[in-house]
Design a protein that fits this description.
By secondary structure, this protein is mainly α. It has a single domain, classed as Arc Repressor Mutant, subunit A, CATH 1.10.10. 64% of the residues lie in helices and 10% in strands. It has a two-stranded antiparallel sheet with strand order 1-2. Helix 3 crosses helix 4. The longest helix is centred in the first third of the chain and has 25 residues. It is globular, with a radius of gyration of 18 Å. The two termini are 16 Å apart. The mean pLDDT is 89.
Length: 143
C-alpha cells in the first residue's frame, strides 16, 4: 500500500481518537460518552425503536447496544416501555434529561469546533470521500 494511503487511514484514526477523547473529557459532567451521545442522537430520529432496531441503525452489535442502553436508562437518559402487541419487546424513549438543550448545544459546539476553519466545500468533499471509503470497505472480499 502506498504511503499516502497508509497516512490517510492513520490520520482518520487520529481524528476519531482525538474527537472521542475530547468529547468524553468534556461531556463527563453530563454523564455522557461519545458512544452514549451517539445513541441518544440516533434515538431522537427513531424514538420508539426497539433495542435491536437501534443497534442496527447504529451499526453495532446488540450486546454493545444493550450495555449502553442499560447505562443510559440507569442514568435517567432513556426509558423502556412495553410495545403494544408484543409483551417481550420494549420500545426506547428519551427522557426530559436526554432532551436538555445543554446536551444538544454541547454536541453542536464540539463538532463546529472540530471543523473550524475548513471551507464547507472541503467538508462536503471529505464526507463524500469517507462515504465512498465506507462503501468500499463494506463490499471488500479478500481473494
Amino acid at each position: 500500500m502506498p504511503a499516502d494511503q497508509t497516512q490517510l487511514f492513520d490520520a482518520l484514526q487520529n481524528v476519531v481518537r482525538a474527537f472521542r477523547r475530547q468529547f468524553d473529557a468534556n461531556a463527563r459532567e453530563m454523564g455522557l460518552t461519545l458512544s452514549r451521545a451517539r445513541l441518544i442522537r440516533t434515538l431522537t430520529l427513531i424514538e420508539g425503536a426497539t433495542q435491536a432496531e437501534l443497534a442496527a441503525e447504529l451499526g453495532i452489535e446488540a450486546p454493545s447496544a444493550k450495555r449502553q442502553i442499560d447505562a443510559l436508562e440507569r442514568d435517567g437518559f432513556i426509558e423502556r416501555r412495553g410495545l403494544e402487541g408484543d409483551a417481550r419487546k420494549r420500545a426506547l424513549y428519551l427522557t426530559d434529561r436526554a432532551r436538555e438543550k445543554e446536551i444538544s448545544r454541547f454536541s453542536t459546539h464540539i463538532r463546529a469546533q472540530a471543523l473550524e476553519g475548513i471551507p464547507p466545500e472541503d467538508i462536503a468533499t471529505a464526507r463524500r470521500v469517507l462515504e465512498q471509503v465506507t462503501e468500499n470497505i463494506a463490499e471488500y472480499k479478500f481473494e
